[in-house]
Write a structure and sequence with these properties.
Order of helices and strands: EEEEHHHEHHEEEEHH
Radius of gyration: 21 Å
Largest sheet: 5 strands, antiparallel
Number of helices: 7
Low-confidence stretches: none
Shape: globular
Strand content: 15-25%
Structural class: alpha+beta
Number of strands: 9
Number of domains: 3
Helix content: 25-40%
């Protein structure tokens, strides 16, 4: 995928994208609400119904890449929370750093619910719906909110430059005793362009939610009560998996979020950065894409030969 910005006005910004088929997409994003208001590609027919599934996905990839390209090149908040790799990775790092008692306070209900499906002595947090087609196919969800809205954190690009200068890998849990980390944190605190606020800490989580199919394969969503009136910064959503301890649950949820970052890049037709070339369950949306479209590998399965 390749992008260029041929023009920008007060109302919108134009993006030209060359997709992985070599087709050119002309896309305009409106600044007022970050909506795509124009998308033209002569290589594919105008009507989605007349395109193949793969052609539709190339169109979707171009739209996702255009949003990401504008975000990276111009700093506009063009990405939704589900498709924002930087914000998802910030949540992942914050989750990894949680002391175990704090992880249990925030995610203990998630761990208990999963455990209840493999251990009859564990009381479930929520009852399995009577009309669920298969209890093993229920997707358990929990929304995660950073201490401040992730969209308000400023200076991510500047912090990344500083991390490279101090040889810090922001995709990994840091060794806080290292001199390089201490120097990096001092530089961040001293830089007026960087203001993370509380964005690197988890401030709240939702109650447990469900997604399941009934006997007629109709979809049902049971929302968990949200503590805040804004979009979350990330969502964990997993089928029942047997985890032997809270420590393993914490590690698995962090890996799950890493897989979601992977999904963001694959979904825009871009090879993920090296730390995110991983296998495992990410977002349900992309799990469906990987299973249905031959253009994708089965990245969501831990045993995939990729």
């Amino acid at each position: 995928m390749k992008g260029t910005i041929p023009g920008e006005t007060e109302e919108g910004i134009g993006v030209d994208v060359i997709d992985n088929n070599g087709a050119k997409h002309e896309i305009t994003i409106r600044k007022e609400d970050n909506e795509i208001v124009y998308h033209q590609c002569e290589a594919y027919t105008d009507k989605a119904a007349d395109r193949t599934d793969e052609e539709n996905e190339h169109n979707n990839q171009a739209r996702r890449f255009a949003r990401y390209y504008v975000y990276r090149e111009r700093g506009y908040d063009t990405l939704s929370w589900e498709e924002h790799p930087d914000r998802l990775n910030t949540v992942r790092l914050a989750l990894e750093r949680l002391p175990l008692p704090e992880f249990e306070r925030l995610f203990g209900d998630f761990y208990q619910q999963l455990s209840s499906q493999f251990d009859a002595s564990v009381e479930p947090v929520v009852e399995i719906p009577a009309d669920a087609e298969d209890p093993s196919e229920i997707l358990y969800r929990k929304d995660i909110f950073l201490a401040v809205d992730g969209a308000q954190a400023a200076g991510l690009e500047r912090a990344t430059d500083l991390a490279e200068a101090y040889d810090i890998d922001l995709t990994q849990v840091p060794d806080r005793s290292a001199n390089s980390w201490q120097g990096f944190t001092e530089a961040v605190e001293a830089d007026p362009e960087i203001d993370f606020g509380g964005s690197l800490e988890i401030g709240a989580v939702s109650d447990l939610g469900l997604f399941y199919l009934d006997d007629n394969w109709d979809e049902h969503v049971v929302e968990g009560a949200s503590p805040l009136e804004r979009d979350p910064d990330a969502r964990v959503e997993l089928l029942p998996v047997e985890l032997s301890s809270l420590e393993r649950c914490q590690a698995f949820l962090a890996h799950h979020l890493k897989c979601q970052v992977r999904d963001c890049f694959i979904g825009m037709g871009v090879e993920p950065p090296a730390p995110f070339r991983v296998l495992g369950p990410g977002r349900l949306y992309y799990t469906k894409r990987y299973e249905l479209l031959e253009m994708y590998e089965l990245y969501h399965t831990l045993e995939a030969d990729v």
